[in-house]
Amino acid sequence: MSFTWRYLVRPDGSFSRMGNIDGSLDNLSDEELxxxxxxxxDDDEPPARLCSRxxxxxxxxxxxxxxxxxxxxxxxxxxxxxxxxxxxxxxxxDPDRDPAALPHLFEDWETETMHAHGWARAQEPEVPFSPPAxxxxxxxxxx
Length: 143
Ligand SMILES: [Zn+2]
What we know:
By secondary structure, the chain is of the alpha+beta class.
């Protein structure tokens, strides 16, 4: 099984990210992906999130990886000194932004932000070597 992220970038620079298991979304156009999203179109814009550090409007507020309860904030005032955040802010504000650059920028920013929270991106785990079970331990059928 393979798992990647499929990113959908809208003209205003906002974007969605969807899990793409075994390439199941590879054949969908951006328009089709947009329709797949939870139907939040009729709602008003969600209230702007404010930076927990300086109180300014956040450029981006995103849940951290896994279910560890960390919310990642991208704040122009607080984060511009960090390289991945700065690159992401620049991309976000650029009307000629290249959607193909998003996954790399986002994941760099995610890594940088989570690192600041004390997390490190795990290396790919090595598959532990498991020797074949000795024949003497194979359960025997009854009967
Ligand atoms: Zn801030």
